Amino acid sequence: MAxxxxxxxxxxRSLVRALKMSGCECLGCAALxxxxxIAGPGPGWLALYGLLLFVAFSLWWFAVDHxxxxxxxxxxxxxxxxxxxxxxxxxxxxxxxxRDRGYGxxxxxxxxxxxxxxxxxxxxxxxxxAVSFVxxxxxxxxxxxxxxxxxxxxxxxMEIAVERGIELISVPLQPGSDLMQFDGCxxxxxxxxxxxxxPLSNPMARIVKRAFDVAISxxxxxxxxxxxxxxxxxxxxxxxxxxxxxxxxxxxxxxxFTCLKFRTMYVNSMSDTAQALIDDPRKTRVGAxxxxxxxxxxxxxxxxxxxxxxxxxxxPHMLSITEEYKSLIEKYMARHAVKPGITGWAQVNGQRGxxxxxxxxxxxxxxxxxxxxxxxxxxxxxxxxxxxxxxIRGDANAY
Length: 399
What we know:
Blueprint: H1 2-7, H2 11-35, H3 43-73, E1 79-84, H4 87-97, E2 105-111, E3 123-125, H5 130-137, E4 141-145, H6 148-151, H7 154-164, E5 167-171, E6 182-187, E7 190-195, H8 203-238, E8 244-250, E9 256-262, H9 285-293, H10 300-305, E10 310-312, H11 319-325, E11 341-343, H12 345-348, H13 358-374, H14 377-393
Parallel strand pairs: 1-2, 1-4, 2-3, 4-5, 10-11
Antiparallel strand pairs: 6-7, 8-9
């Protein structure tokens, strides 16, 4: 959705854009100095120049974004849009456009079946009135859902949209398109759609992510003995059994790996089948503290160093959970397209802990898939910071 995307500015994407522009500026300056044999500043000054540019670009875009959101919330710079399709389809578009009043979208009309049950304040029209409404009202954008392709005279709408400078967006809501999306491409002279790949399908992106993982996990692993000794003593003194808990979990591309944790429960026969609950009698007193503070997850940094996990990614589930949900939740296995993480986008957005209801796992998968589609290194950094802050404040779902 080009119209939608142009008005949403994610902070991490702005930082990536600022990094690219400042990097290109520095490379351009270096190339000019070399080409014209100019005795320019040394690498250190050039790096400082690039850093200052990065900060300036970032602050500028953040300021502009917040200013635009402010004036849109006051009723200025509004885009009036029209939705064509059934209510069930169109509501998915409407929810995205209305996520923040600062995006500045107003639905002027809705054409299609079932529009008698629309939210208050939206004008309902029959499908055959779409063309006349567009001609007389000139909305800024038209969103045509899957069923709208049959409900409206699309050829005529396209002609009018081109003639009058109206943006027309086709929203192909195939099954699972909330989780997996398509990019435009061409087959010869034919327009087509291609399943969108994660940014991590790019080899350079994988190198950057691996460098980020090593940069964080290596210091933790070096200092790990300082944590291991007191934690190991506390575990051994309060309950019989090993210090570490090893469990087979589902990893990258569905392959299994052994996930490490500090043991937080009494040794029991249900550890590989039953999720931990808030008042789980299997937890030890020390284990309850380790879980609340997330210290029990620290051994997984060795999984990161071994390349089995990432610092940030979808949380790995035990094998019984994977078997249970892969047939219940659409696109569940697609969350294994990247390495599992110690923390993730779902966890910092409230989806941590046991999934007692199906909707909880569905929400987790939705957030995991959003992360996979939108990864960048600044997003990873943001998630790490949010995780640390949540640990300090205390997370109600950490049990």
